[in-house]
Amino acid sequence: TGRYPSRFGPHATVPSNRPVLPDGYQTLASTLRDSGYDTGLFGKWHLGSTKNATPNAFGFNYSYGSLAGGVDPYNHRYKKGTYSFTWHRNGEALEEHGHVTDLVANEAINWMETRQDPWFCYVPFTAVHAPIKPTQESLDQYAFEHYDDDPSRDESVKMYAAYASHMDQVIGKMVESLEVTGQRDNTIIIFSSDNGAIDDCPLHALDQYPGYQEANARLGSNLPYRGFKAQLYEGGIRTPTLINWRGILNPGVMSHPVHVSDWMPTLLNLLEIEAPTNPKWDGKDIWPLITGEENNPESRDIYWNFKGESGFAIRSGDWKLISSETDDPDNRTLELFNMEKDPYETEDLADRNVSKVRELVTKIEAQFSKDYLDVRPDLENYAETLG
User: Fold this and answer.
1) pLDDT tens-digit series, residues 12-30
2) Is the Cβ–Cβ distance between 373 and 278 less than 8 Å?
């Protein structure tokens, strides 16, 4: 949408099985579709696990995968309950055999290789989300490596690495398919993540999923950054991103802070496609930063609303403030970091920079005033499940 998730209400800031976006809301996919692009989504959706809120209702001509979130790689089931079974093709329930990573990639490849029009393909893999179940072939790559003295932790790290390697392998197949069909030089490839890694996955968390599970004593690492998924430290919110356009973009590194909401204005401006009416974008066009044409951009604010989880954060220039969630809104924990000097958030400067804290608290409050203004109506019996 080119906007912060919190603009659409609290259900948009966490994985949601109830529909999130208002009916007819313009997305990157719908805007591209209306401009002549074919559009497909392959993988997880998690913006509504019901028949009236599938990706097809928000701009995707074709959709396949899980309407919910990360699923068991082999039985394709999400957490136990109403929305456990949402594996689908174009909103129709589907039973299949195979590892989810292979199924998602193969469906995407078949779709890309048969398009006649320009196309936009979005592939949110369920890997490396729990449950962690790599193929034996992927696991064999790490059979003789050792990462931890504790056998259970060592095995967990191997499984996680194998799961990531499997995803890496099928992405390679996707890129190769572009070569085979002569589309490689005319395709922009963007790879990113939605959050930092989790530390471990205990059995009580995995018990939510149908089928046999093994606890994972050690999974990802976000070092040297502090924190994990669902936290507002950099380890939770800073993720690697790669963009490739062979023959157009030169190799390089861009280190300016940017946000996932930047992709919609960036890509539409690049393609000279008119934006939807009053898009209310929070994102900015970052193409000049990517190409290196602009090296000293104006300072910008980037905002996170994790209300109900971790609280709020704002990055303003070199400064970052985290306002932690507590039961007492008048007694929040405030942490201030200078990201230029201390990117690993080791030294809280809040007590020594009261004026900066006040300034950033005011900025958070200003951003929060724009949240929850485009919330989908919470209608009773709002949708029908695939089951």
Assistant:
1) 888 889 899 999 999 999 9
2) no
